[in-house]
Design a protein that fits this description.
By secondary structure, the chain is mainly alpha-helical. It has 2 domains: about 120 residues, no CATH class; about 120 residues, no CATH class. It has 12 helices and 2 strands. The protein is globular, with a radius of gyration of 20 Å.
Length: about 290
């Protein structure tokens, strides 16, 4: 599978072809398509304004009844479709393509639009600053590559690059997502297939590159509930504390170094850079702590 690099035109039509898009979803897709293409055709702030204008909320009469049979008029359904489309198109945007940066700029622009309070699944959330429903939608789209086919692996790396940027830019705080992604890659035996091994280290590299500092700031030895311990338990090779803690970070750093000898030659520098980056993040944090003291 040829992967676009630089500012090449992205073939996103596959999303439209694979999904039966409703009319309002066609509008959403067209905005996202133009946002990510070379140019871009539409700037992030303008794309955010257009999406906001399409949102089915009558500001003049917020108590007006919503036709829940019409997804274009239902805020929950609208948000689920929007986030789902974003995830699907971002699976087709390689880490090195400017479309990754443009999408983060778009989300940041959404977050700057004057907030409105919504009742989302029984809780009050702010549109757009809380990015309501994004977390469950992402969880619903955590479809691991499964069989080591090149297309599936490329899409998984692309999606992880996008998720890492969301976390790194602190648009969404989600310790368990970090743990799930790095646990899969670093806390179990490596698969036999070289292509899958390379995928694991590529995923780790995206997380450390785009979210490493944020992850390190969030390390904590706080006491966890039994449910939190179950959800963030270690993989086969990690026997330390559950949760996002310093012990786990240290294990991940050591494991990245070990894996660097087991991936293909072209991926070895990426693995070593990830391990070096983790050490640099620790050093920067130490210096910052000394300066505060």
């Amino acid at each position: 599978m040829a992967t676009p690099s630089g500012d090449e035109k992205l073939d996103l039509e596959r999303v439209r072809a694979e999904e039966e898009l409703k009319p309002f979803e066609e509008q959403l897709f067209n905005i996202l398509h133009d946002l990510l293409q070379p140019g871009p055709i539409i700037e992030a702030a303008d794309a955010a304004a257009e999406i906001n204008d399409l949102f089915p909320l009558n500001e003049d009469d917020p108590e007006a009844p919503v036709d829940e049979s019409d997804p274009a008029a239902d805020p929950d359904a609208f948000l689920w479709s929007l986030w789902g489309l974003i995830i699907q198109v971002m699976r087709l945007v390689p880490p090195q393509h400017p479309g990754q940066i443009r999408m983060i700029s778009f989300l940041q622009a959404l977050g700057k639009i004057p907030t409105r309070t919504l009742d989302i699944w029984g809780s009050e959330q702010n549109l757009w600053t809380d990015f309501p429903i994004l977390r469950p939608c992402l969880r619903d789209h955590l479809e691991y590559i499964g069989e080591p086919d090149p297309d599936g692996i490329s899409e998984w790396i692309n999606q992880n690059s996008f998720m890492a940027r969301i976390v790194g830019q602190e648009l969404l705080s989600w310790d368990t997502l970090i743990i799930w992604m790095l646990r899969d890659a670093l806390e179990d035996d490596l698969p036999q297939e070289q292509i899958a091994r390379d995928c694991y280290i590529s995923v780790v590299s995206e997380w450390i590159t785009h979210a490493g500092q944020t992850i390190y700031r969030q390390l904590s030895d706080k006491e966890l509930s039994e449910q939190q311990k179950r959800v963030t338990r270690g993989g086969k090779l990690y026997h330390g504390k559950a949760g996002l803690c310093a012990e786990r970070w240290e294990f991940w750093k050591q494991r990245v170094g070990e894996i660097s000898t087991l991936v293909s030659a072209e991926l070895q520098p990426i693995a070593l850079d990830a391990a070096q980056r983790m050490s640099e993040i620790e050093e920067l944090a130490r210096i910052a702590e000394e300066m505060r003291g």
